[in-house]
Design brief:
four-stranded parallel β-sheet, 14 helices, 17% strand, globular, disordered N terminus, TrpB-like_PALP_sf, Threonine synthase, lyase, threonine deaminase activity
Length: 421
Amino acid sequence: MTVTLGTTSASKTVDLGPAVELVSKEEGHRQPLAPEFVSAEDFSPLEVAYDFGRVRREDIEGGPNNIWRYKKLLPVPSNVEEIPNTEPGGTRLVRADRLAKALGLKRVWVKDDTGNPTHSFKDRVVAVALAAAREFGFEVLACPSTGNLANAVAAAAARAGWQSVVLIPKTLERAKILTTAVYDGALIAVDGNYDDVNRLATELAAEHASWAFVNVNVRPYYSEGSKTLAFEVAEQLGWRIPEQIVVPIASGSQLTKVDKGFRELGQLGLVEASPYKVFGAQATGCSPVSAAFRAGHDVVQPVKPDTIARSLAIGNPADGPYVLDVVNRTGGAIEDVSDEEVVEGIRLLARTEGIFTETAGGVTVATAKKLVETGKLDPDAETVLLITGDGLKTLDAVEGRIGPKATVPPSAEAVSKALGF
């Protein structure tokens, strides 16, 4: 759809495809498409509403092997694939039989998003945010980040020829700092945790009208990028929805949008609208949503993060209450796991399926194991685990725990002896 509105510079016509308006999550107040993220009516988050028209499987299957094959389901321009971007998506869905056996599940699929351009799912959401930001007339791409988003924003801005401003906690993993700085944008380390960084970003967004903070002032569009995980999983399964899916929780947006993606596919008749359960995964050192679920609450009490899973270390998750809604509605559950369990989850996935995940993926695998042990995951149901980032980003999590089995002189006899032959 094409609409006309005021932007940071002057009125212009914007093309955001099937997107028609913004709707508040609490009371359903509607307003025109704009770079806004909170409803002035009920102060709840805004999300994108659509008029999809007719969308056919063959339209999607004829598209490129990236997220733009789903452009008719996203708030992006009709020619989005023609504009320089990182072209994320199209990542593999791996049938993980050895992992399934180790977990005590009948059939497991791993959605391996380590294959994205900066090796995490954040490339998806940033690509959608950049496309919308361009239409709204912004000139700088910015974000507060726990690491993966920093990489994605810096890379996407470089590819588009934009300036980037990235704010990170100074305690971020060294690998994520380097893999952001290499794109030569403005990388700023802040003396504080992610929630401090996020508050600072909100202040800066109000002061700099030309800066598009992907997870602040263009958040409604940014968050829609996570739907593409649901779209790809369903298409890769032969156009069907899995019975169970386990999703890591940081802000909670990814989990809610995966659910939204599945529901949209069903509403459009692209898949059979079959029941499914959504499960959430957190690290115990930052588990406010898990704690709320366990206590039966519908609100989330903020916490101070203390976990090696820094990419999930958001103590005051914006979408926490909506995660609880999704999990309760679908009959799922939320669990949390210790840092030791996170590391074992990383190693378990690596030794069974040859996939090296960062700490967030370790949280997902370890939580799946705990959910099976507590009887919350159905062992006979088809299960998908979302692995959202590459282990090369969080080497410090396994450093000192793994290494050579032995150090030997250069002789076959020494090798055989070390191996016990």
